[in-house]
From TrEMBL:
Keywords per UniProt: Cell membrane, Heme biosynthesis, Membrane, Transferase, Transmembrane, Transmembrane helix
Protein name: Protoheme IX farnesyltransferase
Keyword Transmembrane (UniProt): yes
Annotated GO MF terms: protoheme IX farnesyltransferase activity
Record EC number: 2.5.1.141
Job description of the protein: Converts heme B (protoheme IX) to heme O by substitution of the vinyl group on carbon 2 of heme B porphyrin ring with a hydroxyethyl farnesyl side group.
Enzyme class name: transferase
Subcellular location: Cell membrane
Reactions catalysed: heme b + (2E,6E)-farnesyl diphosphate + H2O = Fe(II)-heme o + diphosphate
Family: Belongs to the UbiA prenyltransferase family. Protoheme IX farnesyltransferase subfamily.
Source species taxonomy: Bacteria, Pseudomonadati, Pseudomonadota, Gammaproteobacteria, Chromatiales
TM segment ranges: 26-45, 51-72, 98-116, 122-140, 147-166, 172-195, 216-237, 243-261, 281-298
GO cellular component, one term: plasma membrane
Note from the entry: Carbon 2 of the heme B porphyrin ring is defined according to the Fischer nomenclature.
Amino acid sequence: MLKVLALPQHYSQQWRDYYQLTKPKVVALLVLTAWVGMMLAQPGLPQFGLMIAATLGIGLLSAAAAAMNHIVDQRIDAQMARTYNRPVARGRLSTQQAVKFSLLLAGTGFLLLFIAVNPLTAWLTLASLFGYAVVYTMFLKRATPQNIVIGGLAGAMPPLLGWTAMTAEVHAHALLLVMIIFTWTPPHFWALAIHRRDDYAKVNMPMLPVTHGIEFTKSAIFLYTLVLFLVCLLPYLVGMTGAVYLVGSTVLNLGFIWYAWQLKFNAKPETAMATFKFSIWHLMVLFLLLLLDHYWLISAL
C-alpha cells in the first residue's frame, strides 16, 4: 500500500525534473519577445491559429535547446553552486532520458512550424537551436571570453522568428529587434558572471570576469548599456515606433545605465545580482512597450 502511494510522488518529481530541464523562465522571456515580433509584423491582430502554432513551435524548440544545454553542461553544472541541483547534473534524469526528451521537443516544434506556420520560420528556429546548443554551449562557451557576445545572437532571434511566422519574410524592423536583444545580452549575462565569478573559475570557464577581471567586466557592462541606449533609439528614428516607446525605453535604459554606473563606481556585494535582475525586467517591459506603442499608433491613425 505504501509503495502504491509513493508512486505518484515519484512521477510528480520526475515531471518537475523534465519541466526544469526546459528552463521555463528563460523560455518564457524568449517566447514573449517572439510574440511581440508576431504582433508588430502587421497592423492588425495576427491570425489566432497561426499565432498559437508559432508560439508553441518556437517555445518547443527553445525548450529543446535548454534541455540540450543541461546535457552538454552536466559535468560543470555538478560543480557550480548555481547549477549543481539541475536534474541531469544530480542524476535524477539520465543523459539518455534528457536526450530523448530534447529530441522529442525539437522534432515536434520543427514539424509544427514547418507544417502549420512556414518553412522559413522552421529552419530559422532550428538554426537558432543549433547556434545555442552546439555553437555556443559546446564550443564558444569553453573557447573565448567573447562567448556570450557571439553566441548571444542565437538568443536574440525570437522577435525575428515571430515576425517571419506571420509574414514568411525577413524584415529590417525585425532585425532591429534582434539587434536590441543582441546588445542587451552581454551586460545582462556579465552581471551574473561577476556574481558567480568563483564558480566559473572553479570549472575553468573563460567568462569575462575570470579572464579579464571584475573591474574590466564592470567597464564593459557600463559601455554596453550606453550602446544599448543608442540601439534602442533606432526603432523610433526609423519610424517603427512612436512617443510611447521613446519615452518608456529612455526611462528603462537610463535605469540600466544607473545600475551599471553603481556596479562600476559604487558597488556593494548585492549590486551585480541586482543589475542582473533589473536587466530581465528591462527587456520584458521594453518589449511590452513596443507592443503598447504599436497599437497606440494604430488607434491614433
